[in-house]
Automatic annotation (TrEMBL):
InterPro entries associated with the record: Asp/Glu-ADT_sf_sub_c, GatC
Gene Ontology BP terms: glutaminyl-tRNAGln biosynthesis via transamidation; regulation of translational fidelity; translation
The protein's name in its UniProt record: Aspartyl/glutamyl-tRNA(Asn/Gln) amidotransferase subunit C
E.C. numbers: 6.3.5.-
Main enzyme class: ligase
One of the Pfam families matching this protein, by short name: GatC
Signal peptide: none
Known function: Allows the formation of correctly charged Asn-tRNA(Asn) or Gln-tRNA(Gln) through the transamidation of misacylated Asp-tRNA(Asn) or Glu-tRNA(Gln) in organisms which lack either or both of asparaginyl-tRNA or glutaminyl-tRNA synthetases. The reaction takes place in the presence of glutamine and ATP through an activated phospho-Asp-tRNA(Asn) or phospho-Glu-tRNA(Gln).
């Protein structure tokens, strides 16, 4: 027995605001029926004694701990800058802007 009919596909297409031709409805009905059949087969295999998982491998947090460390002072940050004005990096003027 088919898991989804052509009429159900047409209904879903209308709900999704998709304009499908008769050939497309037949084509998608076959594809969706195949997908639903495969899902049903997988559902039969699932055993009640096996817990559900989000990932097959047991993973732990692989990130390093977030440790606060002191940053650079303004003078240290600007020490390697080619040009400094008013305690900030100075860059060439672009787009003809006035200061």
């Amino acid at each position: 027995m088919s898991a989804i009919s052509r009429d159900e596909v047409a209904h879903l297409a209308r709900l999704s605001r998709l304009a499908l031709t008769d050939d497309e409805l037949d084509h998608y009905a076959g594809q969706l029926d195949s997908i639903l059949s495969h899902v049903a087969n997988i559902s039969e295999v699932a055993a009640a004694d096996i817990p559900g998982t989000a990932h097959p491998a047991d993973l732990a947090n692989v990130l390093r701990p977030d440790v606060v460390v002191p940053g650079l002072t303004t003078d240290e940050a600007l020490s390697g800058a080619p040009n400094v004005e008013q305690g900030r990096f100075a860059v060439p003027q672009i787009l003809g802007e006035d200061e």
